[in-house]
Amino acid sequence: MDFNDTPEEAAWREEFRAWLEENAPKFTGQPPEHDMEIGGGDYLARAKRWQATKFDAGFARITWEPEFGGRNGTTVEQIIFGQEESRFPVPNEAFIIGLGMIAPTLRAVGNDAQKDRYLTKLLRGEEIWSQLFSEPGAGSDVASLATTATRDGDEWINNGQKVWTSGAQFSDYGEIVCRTNPEAEKHKGITAFIVDMKAPGVTIKPLKQMNGGAGFNEVFFDNVRVPHENVLGDVNEGWTVAITTLMNERVAIGSGGGGGGRGTVQQVIALAQQRGVNGDARVRQQLADLYTKTRIQKFLSMRTLTAATKGKVPGPEGSIGKLLGGRIMTQLGDLTVSLAGADAVAGNTRLAQTMLAAPAGHIAGGSDEVMKNIIGERVLGLPGEPRPDKGVAWREVPR
Ligand SMILES: Cc1cc2nc3c(=O)[nH]c(=O)nc-3n(C[C@H](O)[C@H](O)[C@H](O)COP(=O)(O)OP(=O)(O)OC[C@H]3O[C@@H](n4cnc5c(N)ncnc54)[C@H](O)[C@@H]3O)c2cc1C
Description:
four-stranded mixed sheet; Butyryl-CoA Dehydrogenase, subunit A, domain 2
C-alpha cells in the first residue's frame, strides 16, 4: 500500500486540519485527560460540547449520513480526520464505547424506531452508553452469561449482575445481553436489550483501581423492567448482536481508542534525554526495541484499515495488533518507571500511570490468552480447543 496522501486525501487533510485548528481545544501545558478521570471536574460537560461541535460540522461519523452526524464520506476520510484529531487534547474517552461499539451495532441491528430514538443523541454526545456483557462468571466466555430476562407481557424483567462495566456511573443507556432461554445451547438462548441505566432496580457500584481511578463498575439488576420495544435484534438471537459489538470493539481499541494512550514512545525517548541516559547502550537498545514494535503495530493497523477501505469487515487477524498493543503498553510502563526512578512514584504520578494502567491492556477487549487462541485457530488454522459444552443446554452446563 502507498502511505502517501493522494491529492484528494491531501485536500481532506488540509480541510480537517484547518477546522481543528479553529475549533479543537489546544494543549495548555497540562497533560491531556485520560479515561480514568472521565467523571472528574467539568470533563463530561467539555466532552459533550466537543462531540456536539463535531456533530454539527459533519465530523461525528464521517461515513454516515448528515442526520447521524456524518457527511456521506469515505473510510479514508474518517481515518484522516482521526489522525488529525489525535494531535489535539480532545476529550473523546467518554464516547469510545458509545461511538465505537454501540452506534455501529444500533445501525446494523436496530429497528427504525430505535435508530430514530437513540442514534442522533448518541452521535451528538447527548447520551452516554455502556456495554454490559461481562459477569463475575462470564468474561472470556461471555456466552455463558447468567443474567436473566423473563418476559412479562409487553415487558421483560432483568435480574443478575454485570461487572467491569466501563463508565456505567455516567451512562444514560446500556447494551445488555441476558439469558432468555436456558434450555438452549449457551450461544442460542441470549437476547440483547437497550437498558435505561437510571431505571428502578439498577444499582451501580464503582470499582476502585490500583491507579487511583474508578473507570469501571459492578452493575446489579434487581427486577428491572425493560419494555419489549427495547429488544435489540431478535429474541434469542442476541449472540449475533454481541458479536457485532465485539468486532467493533477490537477495531475501536486497535485504532488507539481504548485503554491506552497514557504515554508514547516519543515521551519515553524525551524522558531518556532529560535524564541524560539517551547515550547509554542498554537504554538505546530498549528504546529501539520499543520503537520497532510501535512501527510494526502501525503497519498492522494500516493493513486492517486498508482492508476496511476495500469494504472488508475486521477479521481475526485484528487479534495480532491487540496482543502486540498490550505488550507495548507494558514495556512502555516498565521503561518509563525505570528511567524516572523514584520520581515516578513520589514526584510525578502521571509517569507511574503508564505502568499502573498497562495490565488492563492485556485483558480489556479479550485477554492475551484468548487472542492467542483466536490467532492459533482462526489465523494459523491449528486444531480448536476442546469445547465440552457444545450441544449441551446452558442449564445443564456445570458452573
Ligand atoms: C479496562 C477494562 C475495561 C473493561 N470494560 C468492560 C465493559 O465496559 N463492559 C464489559 O462487559 N466488560 C468490560 N471489561 C471486561 C473484559 O471484557 C473481561 O475482563 C475480559 O473479557 C476477561 O474476562 P474475565 O476478567 O472474566 O477473565 P476470565 O475470563 O475469568 O479469565 C481469567 C484468566 O483465564 C484466561 N483464560 C480464560 N479463558 C481461556 C481460554 N479459553 N484459554 C486460555 N486461557 C483462558 C484468561 O486469559 C485470564 O488470564 C473490561 C476489562 C478491562 C480490563
